[in-house]
UniProtKB/TrEMBL annotation, chains A, B:
GO terms for cellular component: cytosol. Transmembrane segments: none annotated. GO terms for molecular function: DNA binding; DNA-binding transcription factor activity. The lineage of its organism: Bacteria, Pseudomonadati, Bacteroidota, Flavobacteriia, Flavobacteriales. It comes from Zunongwangia atlantica 22II14-10F7. This is Rrf2-like transcriptional regulator protein. Keywords: DNA-binding. It comes from the Bacteria. Pfam families: Rrf2.
DNA sequence: TAATAACCTACTAAATCGATAGGTTAATAG
DNA sequence: CTATTAACCTATCGATTTAGTAGGTTATTA
């Protein structure tokens, strides 16, 4: 299941990407429009800023703005930052690999074999879609 | 993330499907071979029996056995029983649909649009694979 | 200097997960 | 008929994660 954190993060980024001007958008505006708890959203946008998706400006007229073009922001990147691994099992994760403690040999593991296929197909979809495709 | 429940369930089913004879396999044997807590595995095999994947036999020489041919057991069916929805968001789930409380219109929701694609590609992989493919 | 909005830290209620404990029931072997 | 075996059932539990809330501080603008 996708966490609300990730879901809200994607919605917020989409909201910002939809702005006609490149003006900063306030957290409160996004929160109201997308029905998200403002405090929770604050923490999400902070993560997205710290990981290089957003810039920010304080004080009146401040807010968050996109640093890159929506076409250049792949959904894989967003989801990895907010949700963590895309793979359903750590032992097939490209960016968050971890060995299973129960599995002695990945090569003969039936789950491993299957989850690699799932990972690849998911990766294809999320790699093909950019923020621009969601606007 | 795939739960251990589902992971162990798939491993157990694969183990049973690998048996040369159709003889019942004991929980203890699977647990030992696959490094799974026996008690936990018991509860999983019980679910798989109640949902029609396995038959069981009590007493000495008892255990669990497949009811259908491995070729006829799709991975989608197994995962839906053990893990629940395959979709990452309830609002795009075919078997466990639920409306999002924050989202006023699914048609214009960016997350919805994306998650439908992820669901379909995952469904393709899990629908193409049967238990026989994992053995 | 007041208002604004991002930024930061800490806490928490509720749910879920991965078990464990301690039995009961039914089938088989001797 | 009895002991053993293995499935079956119910309850509980510690740890972790989730989705927030509370209450501030810092920097920018009018």
């Amino acid at each position: 299941m996708l966490s609300k954190k990730t879901k809200y993060g994607i919605k917020a980024l989409t909201f910002i990407a939809r702005q006609p001007e490149r003006n900063p958008v306030q957290t409160s505006e996004i929160a109201k429009s997308e029905n998200i708890s403002q405090k929770f959203l604050e923490s999400i946008l902070l993560i997205l800023r710290k990981s290089g998706f957003l810039g920010s400006k304080k004080g009146k007229g401040g807010g968050y703005y996109l640093i890159k073009e929506p076409e250049d922001i792949k959904m894989t990147a967003i989801i990895r930052v907010l949700e963590g691994p895309i793979a359903m099992v750590p032992c097939v994760s490209l960016n968050y690999y971890e060995k299973c403690d129960d599995c002695p040999d990945e090569k003969t593991c039936s789950v491993h074999k299957l989850m690699i296929q799932v990972r690849d197909s998911t990766l294809n979809v999320l790699g093909d879609n950019t923020l621009a495709d969601l606007t």
